[in-house]
TrEMBL record:
Entry-linked InterPro entries: Ferritin-like_SF, RNR-like, TRASH_dom, YHS_dom
Name under which the protein is recorded: YHS domain-containing protein
Species of provenance: Alicyclobacillus mengziensis
Pfam families referenced in this protein's UniProt entry, alphabetically: YHS
Domain TRASH: 4-41
Length: 66
């Protein structure tokens, strides 16, 4: 399991949508979170030590899932 950098949910790397940024693969709970990340990656990562595991939590509305 890994953490979605947009909403903070635990996600499975095996089935989650993903995107790469600066050589790191990030995993997401849904396509909406992946799109939000790809539109503005710096908003969701720790710029001092980029990692797909962090404690930053954002509001997430599951009604946005498709």
């Amino acid at each position: 399991m890994t953490i979605d950098p947009v909403c903070g949910m635990d996600v499975s790397e095996e089935t989650a949508p993903k995107a790469e940024y600066q050589g790191i693969t990030y995993y997401f709970c849904c396509e909406g979170c992946r799109k939000a990340f790809t539109n503005d990656p710096q908003k969701y990562i720790n710029t001092e030590s980029a990692s797909h595991h962090h404690g930053h939590h954002h509001a997430h509305h599951h009604g946005d899932h498709y």
